Amino acid sequence: IKSIRFILGDQLSVSLASLRDADPDHDLIVMAEPNSEANYVAHHRQKIVFILSAMRHFAQELREKGFAVCYFDYENQPTNSFTDALKLALKHHPVKQVIVTEPSEWRILSEVEKWADTFDITLDVREDDRFFAPLSAFAEFAENRKELRMEYFYRQLRRTTGILMEPDGKPVGDQWNFDHDNRERLPDDHRLPSPLTFKPDTITQALLERVVEDFPNASGKHESFGWAVTRQDALEALDHFIEHRLPLFGDYQDAMTVKSSTVYHSLLSGYINVGLLLPDEVCRAAEVAYRNGNVPINAAEGFIRQILGWREYVRGLYWHMGPEYGKGSYFDGRRPLPAFFWDGDVAMNCLHRAITETLDNAYAHHIQRLMVIGNFALLSGLDPKEVGEWYLAVYIDAFEWVELPNTFGMALYADGGKMASKPYAASGKYINRMSDYCSACQYNPNKNTESDACPFNALYWHFLDRNVDKLGRNPRLAMPYRNWSRMNGNSKTALIEQAEHFLTQMDTGKIPKPSHQP
Ligand code: FAD
Ligand code: SF4
User: Fold this and answer.
1) What confidence category does residue 515 fall into, taking pLDDT thresholds of 50, 70 and 90?
2) I want to staple 265 with a disulfide (CB 3.0 to 4.6 A). Which of 54, 76, 365, 442 is the partner?
C-alpha cells in the first residue's frame, strides 16, 4: 500500500478527484462515521440514515471494484473525529501519503489541514471539481464588484459551459431568465404526480431500526424514509423527475399546497450534495429534455438556474466570505427559536404545514423554507445562530456550505445584504396568493389588527418600521415604505401593538389564538 485515499461522507462519487487515479493494488480507501459528525447539530433521523447508508453502499461499491476499504462504522469501530480515524488507519497501514478531496466546509478543512504535521505524512488536498466553477472563478467574479449577485455569475457559467446557449452566443429563447412565467398558483383541481421513492434495503433497514436509540439527540421522524442511497437509484430518481415533474416545474416553482409537500420539485438536492449525482449530468439531462421538445424553456431554464446558478453561486459565496461568515446579526435578532420549530405545534397553518412536513420527511421545498419559515424567522427577529442550527439539522440536504448562505444571507438578511439585494420579507397576502394554506387557517390573511388577523401582516409592518434606519433607503423597498408613511397614525399604532402583543406572547411560549373562527 502506497497511499491512503480518505473519502468524506459527501464525497460519494467514483469520479472524485481523489479516487480518479486510485489503484486497488496500491491504495487503501479510508472512510469513517465519527461521533463529531453525528452530533454537531440535532440532525434529522432521515438525514443520518441517508448519509450513513449511502456511505456504506459506496464502500461496498468500491470493494466490488477491488479496493481495500478500511471503514470505521459508528457501531463496531467508533471514532471521535476524522483525525481519530486516520490515526487508527495509519497505525495499521503506515503509509507516507494521504490523498483527500478538499472538504466542503471550513470546519473540516481546518481539521484536515493539520494532518501533514500531526502525522508526518505528505498530504495531497485536491480541488473538488464536481462543481461547474472552480473557487478561483468566483474570486475573479467577486473582484472589484460591490454587489455579488447570482444572476451575473449564472450568465457567466451559461457561457462557459454552453448550457442552454445558442451557437451564436445568445441564450436559448433569447432570454436569460423566465422567472415571470414561473409564479403560477396551483389550480384547485390540479392533480400532482408523486415523486419516486425507494424501499429501504437491508443496510438502510438496519440503520432505521437503530437510529432512535443510537442517536438520542436526533430530530424528526424516520418512518417515511424513501430516499435513494445508491447512485443507481439516484439516477432513476433523476429520470423520473425529468419525465414526470420537470415539464411543470417552472410554472409551479413558487406554489405551495396542502395537497403535496413536494409540488413539482425534484428532491435531488441530497443526492447531488453527497455526490450520488453530479450537477453537470443533472443540468445536461434537463437540457436534453428541452432540446428534444419534452419540456418548455421556462421549466428547463428555471430548473437549471437553481443548480448552475444558485448552487454554484452559494458555494462560491460561502468560501469567499471566509470562516467568520454566519457570525453576528445585521438586525440584531435575539429571540430564541420557539419550541414549535421542533414539533410543528402552531396554529398558523402555513408554518404548521411547513414545519410538520420538514420533521416528517426531512424535506420542504424552497418557497416553504424561504417564504414561510424563513420569512417568519426574519419578521419576528429570531436569533440567526439558532435558526441556522435548525436548518442545518432538519433537512436531508443540509451541509453548512449551502445551508449557511441560504439561511443567514438569503432568508434572514443577517449579512446586511451581501447575498440578497433586499430582505425576503412578505405579509400573509403573499402566502395566500401562492398557496391554499390560508383557507384552512384559523387566521385571516385579509385582516390586519383583528383578533383573527394573520400574524404575518402586523409582523411585516413591525419589521419594516423597526428597521427603517437600515432599510429605509433601499430602492427596492421604496414602495412599501411609501405605503407605510401614507398610513394614518391610528392604523400604524394598531399594527405595531398587534405585532408586539404577538411577539410578547410568543416569548412566553403561547402564540395568541384567534378568538373566533374565520
Ligand atoms: P429543486 O427546487 O428541485 O431545485 C433543484 C436543485 O437546485 C436542488 O436540488 C438544489 O441542488 C439546487 N438549488 C435550488 N435552490 C438552491 C439554493 N438556493 N441554493 C443552492 N442550491 C439550490 N439547499 C441545500 O442543498 N442544502 C441546504 O442546507 C439548504 N438550506 C436552505 C435553507 C434556506 C433557508 C433556504 C431558503 C434554502 C435552502 N436550500 C438548501 C436551497 C433549496 O431550498 C434546496 O436546495 C431545495 O429546496 C432542495 O429541494 P429540491 O432538490 O426539490 O430542489
Ligand atoms: Fe399563514 Fe396567515 Fe395564511 Fe394562516 S392566514 S396560513 S398564518 S399566511
Assistant:
1) low
2) 365
What whole-number distance in Å separates Cα of residue 132 and Cα of residue 138? 11
- Is the same domain home to 25 and 103? yes
400 & 465 share domain = yes
For the chain, percent of residues with pLDDT exceeding 90 = 96
Mean pLDDT of 58-67: 98
Which of 256, 379, 435, 454 is the best mutation target for the ligand 2 pocket, counting ligand atoms within 8 Å of the beta carbon and taking the most?
454
Give the atom of ligand 1 at the shortest distance from the alpha carbon of 366: 43
Q: Is 303 in the pocket of ligand 2 (CB under 6 A)?
A: no
Cell 444571507 -> residue = 409
Question: Domain limits at 257?
Answer: 135-195+245-320
Q: Mean pLDDT throughout 360-387?
A: 98
The structure's pTM equals 0.97
Nearest-atom number in ligand 2 for the CA of 351 is 1
Mean residue pLDDT of the chain comes to 96
How large a percentage of the chain has pLDDT more than 70? 99
Same-domain pairing of 166 and 284: yes
Give the pLDDT score at 518: 41
Q: Are residues 253 and 315 in the same domain?
A: yes
Domain-embedded: residue 175: yes
Asked whether 34 lines ligand 2 (CB < 6 A), one says no
Measured from the Cβ of residue 258, the count of other Cβ atoms closer than 10 Å reads 14
pLDDT of residue 516: 54
| End residue of a domain, out of 74, 106, 126 | 126
CB atoms within 10 A of CB 216: 7
Total count of residues recorded for the chain: 518
DSSP 180-233: GGS-PPPPTTPPPPPPP-----HHHHHHHHHHHHH-TT-BS--TT-----SHHH
Q: Is 441 in the pocket of ligand 2 (CB under 6 A)?
A: yes
Same domain as 31, residue 9 = yes
CATH of residue 86's domain is: 3.40.50.620
Give the list of residues 6+ apart from residue 299 with CB closer than 8 angstroms, or none: 246, 247, 248, 249, 250, 251, 290
Q: For residue 231, is it within any domain?
A: no
Atom of ligand 1 nearest to the CA of 266: 3
Cβ of 348 below 6 Å from ligand 2: yes
Task: Quote the ligand 2 centre to 377 CA distance (angstroms).
Answer: 15
Q: Which atom of ligand 2 is nearest to the CA of 456?
A: 2
Residues 359 and 460 in one domain: yes
- What is residue 182's predicted lDDT score, i.e. its pLDDT? 83
- What is the number of the ligand closest to the CA of 440? 2
In a shared domain, residues 305 and 397: no
CATH number of the domain within which 401 lies: 1.10.579.10
- The whole-number pLDDT of residue 517 equals 47
Ligand at minimal distance from the CA of 195 is: 1
